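Q:
Just now I want nothing more than another pair of eyes on a protein record. Here is the record:
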Amino acid sequence: MKTLKKLTLLHSNDMHGDFLAEQIDDELVGGVGLLSGYINKVRQEEKNVLYAIAGDMFCGSIIDSEFHGVSTIQIMNMLAPDIVTVGNHEVDYGVAHLLFLEKCAEFPIINANLYIKTNHTRLFDPYHVIEIDGMKILFIGVLTEITLMKCKKDELVGTFVTLEDAAKEVGKICNAYNATDVDMTVLLTHIGLEEDKKLAEMLDLAWGVDVIIGGHSHSFMDEPVVVNGIPIVQAGTGTDQIGRFDMMIDTDTNSIESYTWTPVPINASTCPRDASIEEVIRTYKDTTDEKYGRIITKFVRKLTAPSHIEETEIGNLFADLLKDSLGVDIFLVASGSFRVKELGPVVTKGDFDECFPFDDRAHLLYWTGAQLRHALLRMLRDEALAGEHTEFYQVSHGLEFEYDQSTHSMLKLNFEGKPVADDQLFTVGLQDFHYRNLKDSFDLEYEEVEKEHPQREIATSCVQVLEEALQRGQHQNAKVEGRMILHKAGEV
């Protein structure tokens, strides 16, 4: 006779400081108060409940950035996850600060492959075993270098470069701890859905990995993707929904007998509110409201940024302000810098910071026309246009291009109305993060672009440049004007 036990496994990812509920169609949606209410409700209804977070608790909100994550840790302590893994934005305040925040956390934070280069000392415990109702659940945290480009600012910190290395590390941990009679093994990853699929293919079934709970690509799913017999799930982004597994675990064979998975919407009609956690959030919000309530500017109308992989109004405005303020021919602003889909018409300091929360230095580089074309083709690769979590850029006025995905070719590349010549030289502005990841973002080598003209830093803060430009120019406007014309495969 089988020994079956039920386990309910709840999970979130990419919460990004999404603490406050929003009013959508006369209903409160999301927010940590409602999320906590749902988790507490499930913990009361079910016998065996675990709650996991697959990275990126931090960054994306004023409350988080103002207190450098300390507010987030306190709020997360009240939310009481059972296990958390590191995401790429966990290092936005620096690795040393992250280790300080870990000391403030009342929950385990795991990562198997983030280490100090000099002696290969791991920064976190690679795994954590949770015992519940006689079951042992092994969690392993995975983050690969492609999602941790921010750490290139810290030359002492590294991570395994490839998925193959990550898979080997998973195998090593599973081999070492399977002897402890682990009933289920869960990978908590923060590498994106497509990379999760590749990782699942590499895993030896004998290692006993049962589930992959992922993050980073902000994927909303209706059902798990099953690869190599392993269900892979994410719960979108923010706190508007939570993922829920209901599993029957066979503790004799150390396997999942059966499971159901569903994305659960977090809203006022289905979730009770946790008043205590809302009170803590309100205390932080009162502080930030006082500081961030001042008005920076007023647009002619509300501006939008509905997509990361197309030209947007907000993207055009900010790219133009940086180009004109810093005196470069072209400024490329990462679409991922914009964290809201609309802004204005009245823009407060808080609105601006929520829209553009990641401050960075600005660099000036000299690119030939051929290098510019090559960089744009790299940006327009199929993975980016498919919506995968790759870097995409908004371009400043004067630059126009038309791209055909079917032939992977530029149909037009103009600057100030004239075709770009391969030997033409341009000054190009980039945010520091993207300068430091020149090879990954643009497939360009430092030696190649700095051979004749070394780069130089032209601003220590893009945020300060933008704020000053916004304050100077009241009643600004921007529109989508055909700077980027993208023909998806089969359209031309």
About this structure: Residues 201 and 228 are 6 Å apart (CA to CA). The longest helix spans residues 275-292. DSSP finds 15 helices and 30 strands in the chain.
